[in-house]
Structure prediction request, 112 residues.
Amino acid sequence: KINVTADSKYGCSSDTTIDFNLQHKMRFYIPNIITTNGDGINESFYIPGKEYMSDYSLKIFNRWGEMLFDSNNPDEAFIPSDYGNNVYLYVLNIFDIYNERHELKGTFMVSR
Prediction:
């Protein structure tokens, strides 16, 4: 609730109360490409924002459905062992700090 008091230029006062609900909708940045060219920038796949996560699970699969990576640690990044150009599938489950569940699925590309 917010209480608001307003005064007119003639000295009249008016009070009102406003009810509101604060809605949150957290979004997480998911990269769609990483570059394994050895320059030290974007060399691995990870999800930033661990301070907004209370629970985390990331699984990464290759194009044939084989799981290559499985982690419950947001500090752990996926570093591809094959440094060629490939496409990978991720399945990400996060509970945010408001205990809202986010299930995100998609692909990202690795480029040299």
Remarks:
- The two ends are 54 Å apart (CA to CA).
- The CA atoms of residues 58 and 92 lie 5 Å apart.
- The beta strands are 2-7, 13-18, 33-35, 53-61, 67-71, 86-96, 101-111.
- The longest strand covers residues 86-96.
